[in-house]
Amino acid sequence: MATPRCDFRSVVVLGGNGAMGSLLCDNLADQAESVTAADLSENPRSGAGATAYLRADVLALDAEAKRLLSAADVVILALPESVALESIEAVRAAMRGDALLVDTLSVKSQVVDFMGKLPPPLETLSINPMFGPSAGFDGQNVIAVKVAAGPRAERFIEILQSWGCRVVFRTAEEHDRAMAALQTATHAAILSFGMALEKLNYDVSALSDMSSPPHRVMLALLARILGGEPEVYWDIQAHNSFAAGARDAVRQSTQDLSDIMVSGSEAEFRARLDRLRDMLGPDLAFLARKCSALFDADRQCEKTGDT
């Protein structure tokens, strides 16, 4: 049986001045009669697309914030993990019983456990947009955990898909296990690269005319992280119960490479590369073409001096 369409009159985004909160406000403005960004700041973010703004502390909700939450069809927690988890019970208490509560946290086990204990008919949906907010939704992956999904949650998912997102569904544990590889290990490797350059007294200006495409792409990845919100990357590293294992794998792999070099075994080095080729399997050729396209884009940036 088809899920009945459920349109939204009022949406409240807690943390609406943050990068992801602001992106959600901008996009939801066309999907609801009113979208209110609520944040600690005195004023809304410049260029914000929300229809209204409320200065509010989610850890100390005042009467106006509670009134706003009580009228909302959808409340979105676009907050750092520690703040979201501490505020969730008070936010739920202020909400209408049959509304939809959504979070955007990068780690799911704890927040989904909290959500699962909230009494019905409240709907709950936990999403993780797998991209930096400046990239926008179109063509991006969003992972969703349907905690207590109903018409409002299904409509929210439809909206994400209408923005061009690919929405995939997982349990909280499946999500966190996957994120240990997709986020924790990835970011740890990039940050470790940056920390290694610091130890080598790296001077980006002095070496720019000697750098290679792989090096410049790695610098670009590092810059991407450094231009983001630190609490997002902290949550990914600090709060996923599988994160320590992922960092250990990065550390041990660096040591393995060093050990192979010390042993002087070129055969072992070749064998490791063969294993990595096997790991990538049929995607190897496609990924190599994608890398070539990245290098082409890098070359054009270098030619034009784009910054």
Give a quick set of tags describing it.
eight-stranded mixed β-sheet, Rossmann fold, 8 strands, 2 domains, 54% helix, 307 residues, alpha/beta
Structure commentary:
- This protein has 307 residues and is α/β, with parallel strands linked by helices.
- It folds into two domains: 8-170, NAD(P)-binding Rossmann-like Domain (Rossmann fold, 3-Layer(aba) Sandwich), CATH 3.40.50.720; 174-304.
- The chain has helices at residues 19-28, 63-71, 81-94, 109-116, 151-162, 172-199, 204-207, 213-226, 230-238, 243-263, 266-280, 284-304; strands at 8-14, 32-39, 52-55, 74-77, 100-103, 123-129, 141-148, 166-169.
- The protein has an eight-stranded mixed sheet, with helices on both faces.
- α5 links the parallel β7 (141-148) and β8.
- α3 runs parallel beside α4 (109-116) and α8 packs across α12 (284-304).
- The longest helix has 28 residues, at 172-199.
- The protein starts with 7 loop residues before the first strand and ends with a helix.
- The mean pLDDT is 94.
